[in-house]
Sequence to fold (474 residues):
Amino acid sequence: MSNINPNSINITFPVAGQDNNSQGFRDNFANTATNFTFAAAEITDLQNKAILKSALTGGTLNNNFQGALLSNAVTAGFADLILDLGVVSGAVSINATTASFQRITTGGSTTISFAGFPAAGNYGRLRLEVVVTNVAYTLTIPATVTLGTTGINGLSANVITFPTVGNYLYEFSTFDGSGSFFIVDLLQSRTTLNGNLSITGNISATGSLTGGSNVNVNANVTPLASQPAALPGTLLRLVNLDASGCRALIETYNSTNQAPGISARQARGTAAGPTATQTTDLLATFTGHGYGATGFGAASTGLFGVISEGAFTDTSMPTALIFEVTPTSSITKAEKMRLSSTGVLTVTGGVASTSTSTGTVVVTGGMGVAGAISGQYYIENVVSKTTTYVAATTDSVILCSATGGAFSVTLHTPVGFTGKVIQVAKTETSTNNITIATSAGAINGLQALSGTSFATNTLRASYISDGTNWNQIA
Fold:
């Protein structure tokens, strides 16, 4: 409210054409002087406090609000002042009052400090461009920068190490009078996450999924930190809910015989300079790990793998498949089976064969071999009988003693057993006969059950199946 009072001037005085009292002149002059005094003070106050578009004549422009509140304003076309501090190194102070956008160019490793941010209860921010000229130059930020630091590329213990030369832009802000600062990397790619990725729930990806660091996919409500640590070198870990199964499924649908698969590659050297695979190098493995009384074993106790059987060249890459298992009362696996590059299957074991269900190799069902079989010795299934007996399909030799009286042995059906030989032997010299019959087909073309009897001097006969009948061959 202005103190100037225009009503204090008597505009009707003096009156023309008559003698006027001099007091009226003195009153008007006094009131005019008073109003001029008020006007001078108020104009000076406006000059000192008003927002101006340009400097007044004889003065300089300074629209410093000095912390005064500006509210409910509509603005357009505002610009931030830029302060380029040039090439720096060592200790550098960044004063927020000089400019809200500042730039430094690294001439060496630099440590910055902050000044000029507003008092507690007010929010202040500053953007800092860092022009990195050498990746050996680091940037140390104040220890009070503690908020938003997770995921900042190259930041460790308040020191930023830059991956490449170029321009980097950070925003620092505070609301508690510089007690703590936020940091935001304004140029960090939003398609790249620096650090580990933990996902609780489902993940859907359209396109390729590339893992350059650890990727933990966790459907369990329990945080990963409460679970056993992953194996060293783990890039992808799949964990399902407790008491639930877990599987990785790969599938494809096409009409060109393109099968889904899992592939692995191995080379010596480095990714930038790979060298040839050598003999006994493992190209790929599938391993198994179990939990003991207090934790997982340091090494796997089962392995299926692809192994090199020679130094690789562009025209020769021999491999074998190996199986390693761990026996009872041991935690060390060892190779027990190998399919070599020449197609030789070697099974290593020390289990003796005493029946059709024991031995290093046990085959349940038929086994076809298109070639010779060589072995140290061959064990057949042998049974001993003293009374009437029907042969089992697993019998090879039937030893008969007829001292207690004659009896019959009935061979099982020859159908489905082409090439099988059954031997029947009389183990004593009594005159009691052993009669041989068949449950299907015939023996030497005779009707079933017509039989053949051993004489006292006939101690053994052999029969071979042609798939329909039994034929006596000895």
Observations:
- Residues 22-49 form the longest helix (28 residues).
- Confidence is low (pLDDT under 50) at residues 446-452.
- The two ends are 139 Å apart (CA to CA).
